[in-house]
Design goal:
single chain, alpha/beta, Rossmann fold, 2 domains, six-stranded mixed sheet, elongated, binds adenosine-5'-triphosphate, binds magnesium ion
Length: 319
């Protein structure tokens, strides 16, 4: 969680209060399929917001709606406090996005590809191209053809292209797909740095280890519907387990069942495996002691975000 401490908004600053993106009751139906159902999201300025869900759960459809590429069946999208439908061009100018594999000309250099984009966009000074290439650490390879770039360099050029217009909100759909650990780390560090500048990052990802390290908050969706939306710390706290060894397992189970903040309780041989928020472990010991139940062992361990995610989503792909 070290990275998180560095990237979190400065306490007491205004960052983190302003709502940059809000969806209310957002829904999309493709024929009979409800790809997105009644989705309510709120992203604050300067945060990295993780958007997680199994394959086919509706992440890219949501992104498509936010970018005005897919017409919602129902619901509303506000960007920077303005209704998207009525202010499409003025608000989308403030948004940068990399969706799927960015499309660049393979025979043109990284620089030339950005120049093509800058010209098409209009109003982007040439000096900005050098700036963004430097920003994503591609300055030295700027004149190499895009086709010769590694996967990580291609992704970074994609991010560079979104930075041309100095966006306040950056939407990344699976930016670390197909990257090796070093490439993933480069993208992760870049995202953290963008958030430190006060930009908001909406990150769709399957790489839960990455998400755990850089996101402030996450939403988890399954089959188009929100399962949970919470700060990463809170989710990890929820994913805290206690393994309790007691002689009388049945009585201990009865006591624990009555505690409202205890999650799942499973019997494992001579242990009870109990989902308990991290800060409540001592209260478990207390509640058992009150009933004169004294565990011979209490082992606590935390689930990774990956395991919390699998518990939440049932561990199956949505497809
Ligand atoms: N244009 C379309 N027409 C019909 N069905 C679609 C269309 N686009 C998406 N879908 C369906 O909507 C559902 C959600 O797809 P979506 O691409 O949003 O999921 P995702 O969460 O981005 O998945 P992944 O993790 O695989 O990228 C899927 O069942 C998909 O097949
Ligand atoms: Mg997708």
């Amino acid at each position: 969680m070290k990275t998180q401490a560095i990237t979190a908004p400065v306490p007491g600053s205004d960052m983190g209060h302003e709502i940059v993106l809000r969806t209310t009751g957002l829904s999309k139906r493709f024929g009979k399929l409800e790809a997105v159902k009644d989705l309510n999201l709120e992203l604050r300025r300067g945060e990295v917001f993780g958007f997680l869900g199994p394959n086919g759960s509706g992440k890219s459809t949501t992104v498509g709606m936010i970018l005005g590429l897919i017409e919602p069946t129902a619901g509303n999208i506000e960007l920077f406090g303005l209704n998207l439908r009525d202010n499409l061009w003025s608000v989308l100018r403030r948004v940068g996005a990399v969706v799927e594999a960015p499309a660049f000309y393979p025979y043109l250099s990284g620089w030339d590809n950005l120049e093509v984009l800058a010209t098409a966009t209009g109003g982007v000074p040439k000096s900005r191209i050098a700036e963004v290439l430097e920003r994503v650490n591609l300055k030295d390879r700027a004149s190499d053809p895009y086709g010769h770039y590694s996967m990580g360099m291609k992704q970074r050029l994609g991010i560079a292209s979104t930075l041309l217009r100095d966006p306040e909100l950056i939407i990344l759909d699976e930016p670390a797909n197909g990257l090796d650990p070093a490439g993933t780390k480069e993208v992760r560090d870049l995202i953290a740095a963008l958030a430190r500048e006060g930009r908001t990052v909406f990150l769709c990802s399957h790489m839960l280890h990455e998400v755990e390290q850089i996101c402030h908050r996450v939403a988890v969706i399954k089959q188009g519907a929100m399962l949970t939306s919470a700060p990463v710390d809170e989710l990890l706290n929820r994913g805290h387990m206690l393994r309790i060894a007691v002689a009388d397992i049945a009585s201990a189970e009865e006591v624990l069942k009555k505690l409202p903040w205890v999650g799942s309780i499973k019997r494992e041989d001579s242990y009870l495996a109990v989902a308990v928020p991290k800060d409540r472990s001592s209260q478990v010991a207390e509640a058992l002691a009150e009933q004169r139940i004294f565990p011979s062992e209490m082992i606590s361990h935390s689930l990774s975000l990956e395991n919390v995610f699998l518990e939440l989503t049932g561990g199956k792909s949505g497809d």
